[in-house]
């Protein structure tokens, strides 16, 4: 049996046992002091939608590599169920520090699942290159850093709670890009990094699930749930139509390209995430959905060949163009809409108040992306220490390093 397999076998199970034991002990010590965890809540329908979206939707969304299907879905599920427990404890820790008030258990669980979206997005950037041990360490570190970023936004910039959570797309995308920049690049001729029609079909299935449940994601913790659902759905619908249109226009033979559809149909949901609850005119959400799809396809079409070689990035699942750029557009749109709304309400006379609101929105955006990049670089360096047993570049994008394939051992 190969030595590296023995090393993997002897490290991962014991790491999982250690972490789960610590989580059980921490839950036993923390939960009695954080209020009634079984208090009634009306969040279950939206929570179930978001849970499906994160586990099933993103699990298949990441299934883009032809020889990494088992790991894409399996590791996603492992990271989610482990990370949600960590997030719940972090929520309780914030209550203990009096940073936030005690909440019902369902609300805390819902926030934990939403926070895990940042990790799921980041894992798409390092898909196929990081070992399970590295992914688990990345999950723990990213959750801590994301909660620190949330606390900074809430404490110093007075960002509302549900909006601080919706920075998951921005944080997850740029954290993942920073982490993947610290991994060695695979050889140019490595064939395992390609997709196949079958893998792209399964990935599109995940995209459809994420698309269907995205309105619940944007509205679950919002005050104006009706507006958030309607605006998110319209933005998603327009971005999907625009994705098909631009895919045909930008391809050489005028045909649709599945990678374009796979990423751009979700751009509308990301773009309106900060403003879905406050937009009062549906056409505004539709325009944002259109712009989100445009920036996704044109960004991947024009910038990918320039940025990736220059910055030595290999964004395996294209999270920069699917989540990062639309999130930046959404942050800019929130500032513009805030200024325009103040003008319509005839509040331009109070320029100091207007400038303060714009400063808060811009500051939250800059703080989130700066923290994501800095902590992502630190995390990438940590993941490549010898203790965590980094995967050799020849083993990138290969399920057989981690999973059993019985049919291969009997000669079929």
TrEMBL record:
<feature type="transmembrane region" description="Helical">
    <location>
        <begin position="283"/>
        <end position="303"/>
    </location>
</feature>
<feature type="transmembrane region" description="Helical">
    <location>
        <begin position="229"/>
        <end position="249"/>
    </location>
</feature>
<feature type="transmembrane region" description="Helical">
    <location>
        <begin position="50"/>
        <end position="68"/>
    </location>
</feature>
<feature type="transmembrane region" description="Helical">
    <location>
        <begin position="162"/>
        <end position="180"/>
    </location>
</feature>
<dbReference type="InterPro" id="IPR029020">
    <property type="entry name" value="Ammonium/urea_transptr"/>
</dbReference>
<feature type="transmembrane region" description="Helical">
    <location>
        <begin position="323"/>
        <end position="344"/>
    </location>
</feature>
<dbReference type="GO" id="GO:0008519">
    <property type="term" value="F:ammonium channel activity"/>
</dbReference>
<dbReference type="GO" id="GO:0005886">
    <property type="term" value="C:plasma membrane"/>
</dbReference>
<dbReference type="GO" id="GO:0097272">
    <property type="term" value="P:ammonium homeostasis"/>
</dbReference>
<keyword id="KW-0472">Membrane</keyword>
<dbReference type="Pfam" id="PF00909">
    <property type="entry name" value="Ammonium_transp"/>
</dbReference>
<comment type="similarity">
    <text>Belongs to the ammonium transporter (TC 2.A.49) family. Rh subfamily.</text>
</comment>
<feature type="transmembrane region" description="Helical">
    <location>
        <begin position="75"/>
        <end position="97"/>
    </location>
</feature>
<feature type="domain" description="Ammonium transporter AmtB-like">
    <location>
        <begin position="29"/>
        <end position="387"/>
    </location>
</feature>
<keyword id="KW-0812">Transmembrane</keyword>
<feature type="transmembrane region" description="Helical">
    <location>
        <begin position="201"/>
        <end position="217"/>
    </location>
</feature>
<feature type="transmembrane region" description="Helical">
    <location>
        <begin position="135"/>
        <end position="156"/>
    </location>
</feature>
<protein>
    <submittedName>
        <fullName>RHD protein</fullName>
    </submittedName>
</protein>
<dbReference type="InterPro" id="IPR024041">
    <property type="entry name" value="NH4_transpt_AmtB-like_dom"/>
</dbReference>
<keyword id="KW-1133">Transmembrane helix</keyword>
<feature type="transmembrane region" description="Helical">
    <location>
        <begin position="356"/>
        <end position="385"/>
    </location>
</feature>
<dbReference type="InterPro" id="IPR002229">
    <property type="entry name" value="RhesusRHD"/>
</dbReference>
């Amino acid at each position: 049996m190969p030595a590296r397999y023995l090393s993997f076998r002897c490290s991962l199970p014991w790491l999982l046992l250690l972490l789960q034991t610590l989580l059980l002990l921490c839950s036993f010590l923390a939960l009695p002091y954080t209020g009634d965890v079984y208090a009634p809540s009306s969040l279950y329908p939206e929570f179930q939608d978001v849970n499906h979206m994160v586990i099933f939707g993103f699990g298949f969304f990441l299934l883009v590599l032809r020889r990494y299907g088992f790991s894409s879905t399996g590791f996603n599920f492992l990271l989610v169920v482990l990370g949600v427990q960590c997030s719940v404890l972090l929520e309780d820790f914030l209550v203990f520090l009096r940073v936030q008030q005690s909440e019902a258990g369902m609300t805390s669980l819902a926030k934990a699942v939403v926070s895990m979206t940042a990790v799921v997005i980041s894992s798409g950037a390092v898909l196929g290159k990081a070992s399970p041990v590295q992914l688990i360490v990345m999950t723990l570190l990213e959750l801590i850093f994301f909660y620190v970023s949330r606390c900074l936004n809430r404490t110093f910039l007075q960002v509302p709670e549900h909006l601080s959570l919706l920075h998951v797309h921005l944080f997850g995308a740029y954290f993942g890009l920073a982490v993947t920049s610290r991994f060695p690049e695979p050889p140019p001729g490595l064939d395992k990094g390609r997709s196949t029609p079958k893998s792209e079909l399964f990935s599109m299935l995940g995209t459809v699930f994420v698309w269907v449940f995205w309105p619940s994601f944007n509205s679950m913790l919002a005050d104006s749930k009706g507006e958030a659902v309607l605006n998110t759905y319209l933005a998603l619908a327009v971005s999907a139509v625009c994705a098909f249109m631009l895919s045909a226009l930008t391809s050489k033979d005028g045909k649709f390209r599945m990678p374009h559809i796979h990423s751009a149909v979700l751009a509308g949901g990301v773009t309106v995430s900060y403003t879905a609850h406050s937009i009062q005119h549906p056409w505004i959400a539709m325009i944002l959905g259109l712009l989100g799809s445009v920036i996704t396809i044109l960004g991947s079409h024009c910038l990918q060949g320039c940025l990736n070689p220059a910055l030595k990035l290999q964004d395996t699942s294209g999270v920069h163009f699917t989540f990062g750029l639309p999130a930046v557009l959404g942050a800019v749109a929130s500032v513009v809409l805030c200024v325009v709304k103040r003008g319509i309400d005839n509040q331009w006379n109070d320029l100091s108040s207007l400038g303060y609101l714009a400063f808060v929105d811009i500051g939250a955006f800059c703080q989130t992306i700066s923290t994501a990049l800095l902590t992502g670089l630190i995390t990438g360096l940590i993941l490549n220490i010898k203790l965590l047993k980094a995967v050799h570049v020849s083993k990138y994008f290969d399920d057989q390093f981690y999973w059993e394939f019985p049919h291969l051992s009997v000669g079929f």
